[in-house]
């Protein structure tokens, strides 16, 4: 199984493709950045085009995303919500199932601790994927963590 993890954001959306082998293997990771000089609709169109290209290039079996959670900063929550909507649409148009995970579930799946800090998550992503160092930037590492979370949760979903 090839899982495309997506960490949505308007300025930077991380993506990471992980093969569910034993051990899991990182295939590709990166970030889609949008031009801050553009209008929000134009930036969303850039994000859509970038995600569509990643899906076309990687042919994942499924998409896993971090779910939008309430943030103290309403503006940040709105921009993440918009980016999440674009990611959901892009995956749906490609005929891919999407599974969403809350941040604490992602952290717990990767580190065993739902309150782990970003550094600990990045270290464990590197260890689980047998990488010499944590993937950079952090958005790409987070996307790989989301894919790993799905690989750990998927057998439970099948049993249900």
If you had to describe this structure to a student in words, what would you say it looks like?
By secondary structure, this protein is α/β, with parallel strands linked by helices. It has a single domain, classed as Ribonuclease H-like superfamily/Ribonuclease H (Nucleotidyltransferase, domain 5, 2-Layer Sandwich), CATH 3.30.420.10. Helix content is 51%, strand content 20%. The chain contains five helices and five strands. The chain has helices spanning 40-58, 74-93, 103-111, 118-128, 138-159, and strands spanning 2-7, 12-19, 25-33, 62-66, 98-101. A five-stranded mixed sheet has the order 3-2-1-4-5. A hairpin with a 5-residue loop joins strand 2 and strand 3 (25-33). Helix 1 packs across helix 2 (74-93). The model has no long low-confidence stretch (mean pLDDT 91).
> What is the total number of structural domains?
1
Rounded to the nearest angstrom, the radius of gyration is 15 Å
Most strands sheet: 5 strands, mixed
**Distance, first to last CA:** 18 Å
Question: How many strand segments?
Answer: 5
CATH architecture: 2-Layer Sandwich
H/E topology pattern: EEEHEHEHHH
Shape: globular
Strand line-up in the sheet with most strands: 3-2-1-4-5
Q: CATH H-level name... which superfamily?
A: Ribonuclease H-like superfamily/Ribonuclease H
Strand content: 15-25%
Counting DSSP H or I runs of 4 or more residues, the number of helices is 5
Topology:
Elements: E1 2-7, E2 12-19, E3 25-33, H1 40-58, E4 62-66, H2 74-93, E5 98-101, H3 103-111, H4 118-128, H5 138-159
Parallel strand pairs: 1-4, 4-5
Antiparallel strand pairs: 1-2, 2-3
Helix pairs in contact: 1-2, 3-5, 4-5
């Amino acid at each position: 199984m090839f899982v495309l993890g997506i960490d949505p954001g308007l300025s930077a959306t991380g993506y990471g493709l992980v093969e569910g082998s034993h051990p899991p293997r990182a295939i590709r990771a990166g970030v889609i950045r949008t031009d801050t000089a553009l209008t929000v609709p134009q930036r969303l169109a850039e994000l859509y085009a970038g995600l569509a290209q990643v899906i076309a290039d990687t042919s994942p079996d499924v998409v896993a995303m971090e779910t939008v959670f309430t943030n103290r900063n309403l503006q940040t929550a709105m921009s993440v919500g918009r980016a999440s909507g674009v990611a959901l649409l892009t995956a749906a148009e490609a005929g891919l199932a999407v599974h969403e995970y809350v941040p604490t579930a992602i952290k717990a799946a990767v580190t065993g601790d739902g309150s782990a800090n970003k550094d600990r998550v990045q270290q464990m992503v590197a260890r689980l994927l047998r990488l010499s160092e944590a993937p950079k930037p952090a958005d790409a590492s987070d996307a790989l963590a989301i894919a790993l979370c799905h690989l750990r949760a998927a057998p439970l979903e099948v049993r249900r």
